[in-house]
Every structure is written in C-alpha cells, then in structure tokens.
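Input/output pair, single chain:
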Amino acid sequence: MFVGVLVGSNVDALTSQGFLILMMLAGAVGFYLGIDTPQLPFHPANDDGQIDTAEFLSTVGTFLATGSAFASVSVIVLRHDPHIVWTSMIMAGWVVGVTMQIIAGAIARFRR
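Output:
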C-alpha cells in the first residue's frame, strides 16, 4: 500500500484507486505464497549442496519487497520529494520482489 501511495503520488498516470487495489492484492498474494512455502522433505543421503530455488526466490523476494516498502514509508514520513528515478527504483524493487514471492510459492506447491 505504501509503495502504491508513493508511486501514485509521484506518477500522475498511476494515481487511481484501481492501481492501489492492484498493488495491495499483488502484495497480499505475494506475501502469502512467498512466506508460506512448504519445505522440501529432508533427505540426508541426497544432499548435494544445491540451493532450493523456491526458498531462494522467497528470501530474495521478501527482502526486495520489504526494502521497497521501508523506503516508501521513509519517504512518506520524512516528507521528501524523490526524483522520478528513485520512485521508479522503489516500484521496480517492489514488483520484482512480489513476483519472486509468487513464483516461489507456485514452485513450492507444484513440486509436492
């Protein structure tokens, strides 16, 4: 919601209720799917040192989405007027992070 407010207040084309609802729904779906990923079963004999793709995407996606939300709240609370490049970077970080969370959740659920 905070990323949507920041981006919507700085980019005139994205100032709408539909944009805010889309941002909130995507964030909620990404948070649910990316945070609540089922883990792989434990197989000590098959430990080849590879990173679990779903866990990696979930972790990095959560980091990016949370960092973007934190940056948005900071800009709003401190009443800064960031350059459009910073606003675009915050939006991109949030979109990439939420997308990674959704993909991680889908991977973890389909591999059962």
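Residues 43 and 49 are 12 Å apart (CA to CA). The chain has a mean pLDDT of 83.
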